[in-house]
UniProtKB/TrEMBL annotation:
Protein name stated in the entry: Polyphosphate glucokinase
Family annotation (Gene3D superfamilies): 3.30.420.40
Gene Ontology terms, MF aspect: kinase activity
Entry keyword set: Kinase, Transferase
Entry's family note: Belongs to the ROK (NagC/XylR) family.
Family annotation (NCBIfam families): PolPhglucPhase
Source organism: Streptomyces violaceoruber
Pfam families cross-referenced by the UniProt entry: ROK
Amino acid sequence: MEIFGVDIGGSGIKGAPVDLDRGDLAQERHKVLTPQPATPKGVADCVAEVVGHFDWSGPVGVTFPGVVTDGVTRTAANVDKGWIDTDARALLGERIGQPVTILNDADAAGVAEMTFGAGKGRTGTVILLTFGTGIGSAVFTGGELVPNTELGHLELHGHEAEKHASTKAKDDGDLSWQHWAHRVQKYLLHVEMLFSPELFIIGGGVSRKADKFLPLIEKVRAEIVPAQLQNNAGIVGAAMAARAAQSKG
């Protein structure tokens, strides 16, 4: 079964049809740059461009980098503030002309990893963290998602953690892998103190380069692994959410 998934990020918007039997993209994904400023209308136009690239007709799942409740976007840390309290499900559905399901981007990636990837079969507390423009989080216990956790906004050394340890912070500060891994280690230790997970899954684009920084992280008791679906996890999770909404519907 194929359903379309779109992943809205701070720097790029990417999507593809997803084969939900395999938990993988059915076609090579199409990506466009996130408009700056990332206003609701600008982003909606880009999502429509990605979906239109495949001439897709049918349900569409969309991720959003912030808190989402009942299709409404409640926060907007790395996109335009105009998203706050926007009925994104209605906005995108109208723009695309297809039924839309929308959810937090890290939650989508987490659901995909728990079903098809690094978290499959794990029933303890599992935390997926996506490192990119910010830091997204998805927390699972007993295989169930605790939605919209936003652990990237935890305070660390007087700052939001994502300002200190995101991939963007690494790039902006021109940090070495060693220096950045030290920051990520401090962040993981802080999250571990609060939640005592058995497993951390590290996602986002940087998961492709896990060998450059994961071996440098020490002192964390939990197992730490890269996301198996890497940066496609959000697209897969978005499609899974759209299918779930369709079956409820």
